[in-house]
């Protein structure tokens, strides 16, 4: 996807996307179905796309760096009631578990210092 296509998506203008008209129509009338179709084409389990969409659709997310022994990870708080824990494993992060309870607001500037 090029910069022009990304700008078009951000503005809601899908006419700039380089894809067949029927895919654009499907994207507009049923984004969830479109994403499932794209996931299948890419070899991604579409059930993960469904679950992610359901989990994050209306969620308020806070992220906090993980401190501790290795300190290479983060905690994602969802609606200040569910925390998902991730630890670094080589060049990616792996899910490490969850906790439930009442949490304070997280740090929304956690990624501000990251350089591209």
Characterization of the model:
The two termini are 19 Å apart. Helix 2 crosses helix 3 and helix 3 packs antiparallel against helix 4. By secondary structure, the chain is an alpha+beta fold. It has four helices and four strands; from the N terminus they run H-H-H-H-E-E-E-E. The chain is elongated, with a radius of gyration of 18 Å. Strands 1-2-3-4 form a four-stranded antiparallel sheet, with no helix packed on it. It folds into two domains: 54 residues, no CATH class; 58 residues, no CATH class.
Task: Say how many strands there are.
Answer: 4
- Continuous helix count: 4
**Terminal Cα span:** 19 Å
β-strand percent reads 15-25%
Write a concise keyword list for the protein shown above.
116 residues, alpha+beta, four-stranded antiparallel β-sheet, 4 helices, elongated
Short overview:
The protein has 116 residues and is of the alpha+beta class. It has two domains: 3-56, no CATH class; 59-116, no CATH class.
List the helices and strands and how they pair.
Layout: H1 3-11, H2 21-29, H3 31-42, H4 46-56, E1 61-65, E2 73-78, E3 82-89, E4 92-100
Antiparallel strand pairs: 1-2, 2-3, 3-4
Helix pairs in contact: 2-3, 3-4
